[in-house]
Design brief:
Layout: E1 6-10, H1 18-32, E2 36-40, H2 52-57, E3 63-67, H3 71-80, E4 87-90, H4 97-108, E5 117-119, E6 131-132, H5 142-146, E7 152-154, E8 160-162, H6 174-178, E9 184-185, H7 206-216, H8 260-277
Parallel strand pairs: 1-2, 1-3, 2-5, 3-4
Antiparallel strand pairs: 6-9, 7-8
Amino acid sequence: MVRRPTAILSRQYEAGDPQRALEDELARQCAAAGWDVLVIPHIYHLPAGDDLLAELGELPGPVAVAAWMHVRPAACLLGEAGVEPAAVIDLGECTGPDAALAALTEALGEAEGAGSVREVEREITERWYPVIDRSRCIACGHCLQFCLFGVYETDDQGRIVAVRPDNCKPGCPACSRICPEGAIIFPICDDPAIAGAPGAFMSLDAAARRMYYVRTGRPCRACGQIVRPGGVAEGAGIATCPECGGPLPGAQGTPAQPSAVHDEIDALIEALDDIAGGGGR
């Protein structure tokens, strides 16, 4: 039996919003193209553990997804649910429903007859949590050691997993700023690089990385040395590791006394402790 293609439309807008009309028109046009249409709440804000994600992974036939988020985080969320779409379309990059339909048609082709439209509704509360890009994550543990809110753990396969995503402090993307592989995405962050925008590259937070090595006592992934509290040097003609800030082996000169780097780390620690003290959700 031939399976109809399915277009998944991830809503963002409430009734009465002008963009809601775009969503409704796109759903209508997709059904007219012969596809079955499944309209769901914003995929990022679905309640943790919602069985709708499992249902998406069991859809028959080819699937394409249109969502109000960048393609990379949307693909990561879908991948965790076992969905391998033929295409993911960022509705924010489309000029209207016709442009979105054209992109979906390129992936799904047209089918005979008319498809159906089914909408799944959920009580939605906006969430803020990290999405891990498995194609980039090397399980280095930076995020696990750095996070103050117990979001991360290691699973039995050695992968880093956000086991308590809603422990994350709303608006805090600190773990994304220290990830050496750029594997942690916060899709609704104002910073395009942290939100996973294509072609946007994040500058790693050097002070946060140095703090990680000082506080955990772990060897630096770049130079291999252990950075002791008070052992970060700068100036005085000493070459330092760009990853941990420690003096490179064989560096010549006199180690600097606690300096601006130490002050930067101390300020970051205080800021994170203040966030932790403020409580999370």
